[in-house]
């Protein structure tokens, strides 16, 4: 894998991870809600104009372009598993920013993900 291909994949993963974190921050700002017929419009508008959610959607849009560029250079069987790195990133940042737990079992799963991504990356 070339340096440019790796950079594109990593950028796509980081943008995707950032999008998830921004969406979570946005839903935290909006608070718990249920979609019901009478609140679809008010909740939909609240979500649509929440800055974190708008930022998350922008990250997704840019990540799509970057990901298409990466897929033009790297086999999908190599590139797609790399998205799992986003889970590792998000687990640690969610622990720091949102106070989400990082139990031993979750850390073991993260270890398996890292080993799996390493094995897939070396398989090419």
Structural summary, described in words:
This protein is mainly α. The protein has one domain (3-122). The chain is 80% helix and 0% strand. The chain has helices at 3-30, 40-48, 51-71, 76-82, 84-98, 104-122. Helix 4 packs antiparallel against helix 6 (104-122). The longest helix has 28 residues, at 3-30. The model has no long low-confidence stretch (mean pLDDT 93).
Per DSSP, the total helix count is 6
Number of domains: 1
Largest beta-sheet characterization: none
Protein structure class: mainly alpha
Low-confidence stretches: none
Radius of gyration using CA atoms only: 17 Å
- Spatial shape: globular
The level of helicity is: over 70%
Q: Find the count of extended strands (DSSP E, 2+ residues).
A: 0
Query: What proportion of the residues form beta strands (DSSP E)?
Result: under 5%
Mean pLDDT: 93
Give the CA-CA distance, first to last residue: 8 Å
**Order of H and E elements:** HHHHHH
């Amino acid at each position: 894998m070339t340096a440019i291909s790796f950079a594109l994949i990593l950028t796509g993963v980081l943008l995707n991870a950032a999008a998830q974190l921004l969406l979570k921050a946005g839903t935290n700002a909006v608070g718990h809600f249920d979609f019901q017929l009478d609140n679809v419009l008010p909740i939909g508008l609240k979500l649509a104009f929440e800055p974190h959610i708008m930022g998350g959607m922008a990250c997704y849009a840019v990540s799509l372009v970057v990901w298409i560029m990466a897929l033009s250079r790297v086999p999908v069987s190599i590139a797609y598993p790399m998205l799992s790195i986003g889970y590792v990133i998000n687990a640690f940042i969610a622990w720091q920013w949102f106070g989400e737990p990082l139990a031993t079992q979750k850390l073991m799963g993260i270890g398996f993900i890292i080993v799996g991504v390493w094995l897939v990356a070396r398989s090419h």
